């Protein structure tokens, strides 16, 4: 009787362990329309979208739009938009993450290492 209980407990612990690994290993599924900078859209329109999302309290969605703006600005070599998106990204991450200041400083230092002339002095 004791052996059966011990065996059942061991099986339950193993199942819980693998279940926890499976849950932690899953990646979050997000809408891809936030990552795409819409064709024909301007930076002004996208920043208005960010402001409206922030005013609604949708900081995570706003962060996705800011990341899309950042990627578009990097490919366009639009320095003012790159700096603006970095600042907004740091602000929005602060609302969602613990120790965000330390993480933001690490990301900022990485950004400084890869930045070119117009952006590097500003950062």
Mean pLDDT: 76
Individual helix count: 5
Strand residue content: under 5%
* Weakly predicted, low-confidence segments: 22-34
Helicity range of the residues? over 70%
Structural class based on helices, strands and sheet pairing: mainly alpha
Major beta-sheet overview: none
Strands, count: 0
Rg over CA atoms, rounded to whole Å, is 21 Å
First and last CA, distance:
68 Å
List the defining traits of the structure above.
123 residues; mainly alpha; 5 helices; 72% helix
Protein described:
This protein has 123 residues and is mainly α. 72% of the residues lie in helices and 0% in strands. Helix 2 runs antiparallel to helix 3. About 11% of the residues have low confidence.
Question: How would you summarize this macromolecular structure in one to three sentences?
Answer:
It contains five helices and no strands.
Explain the layout of strands and helices.
Elements lengths: L1 H24 L17 H13 L3 H18 L2 H18 L3 H15 L9
């Amino acid at each position: 009787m004791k052996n059966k209980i011990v065996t059942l407990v061991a099986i339950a612990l193993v199942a819980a362990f693998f279940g926890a690994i499976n849950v932690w290993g899953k990646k979050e599924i997000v809408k891809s329309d936030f990552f795409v900078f819409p064709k024909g859209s301007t930076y002004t329109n996208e920043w208005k979208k960010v402001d409206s999302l922030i005013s609604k309290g949708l900081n995570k969605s706003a962060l996705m739009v800011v990341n899309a703006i950042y990627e578009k600005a990097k490919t366009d070599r639009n320095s003012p938009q790159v700096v603006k998106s970095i600042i907004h990204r740091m602000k929005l991450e602060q609302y969602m993450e613990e120790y965000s200041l330390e993480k933001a400083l690490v990301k900022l230092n990485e950004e400084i290492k890869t930045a070119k002339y117009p952006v590097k002095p500003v950062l």
